[in-house]
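During the reporting period the student researcher (J.K.) took over the structure-prediction task from the postdoctoral fellow and processed the backlog of single-chain submissions. One of the processed entries is reproduced below for the supervisory committee.
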Amino acid sequence: MNEALDIFQAYPVPWQIGRTLFELGELKRGEGKIKQAGEYYSRALSEFERLHAAPFVRKTREALAQLGSK
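J.K. obtained the following structure tokens:
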């Protein structure tokens, strides 16, 4: 997935960048790497906020909150 992120950043497509960052967060959370998951989720949140993508802002904030409860 890092290759996908590199491609999307080269052709600025913020929606895909946000989605890829979110999925990387999911992957790291599944691996138990909570700090890394939080970093990816935070970066995804920034992209979604910039796009005013309210449903994905909410979803990403929920994912971050779940990390804090672990």
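The committee noted the following: The chain has a mean pLDDT of 89.
J.K. will present the remaining backlog at the next meeting.
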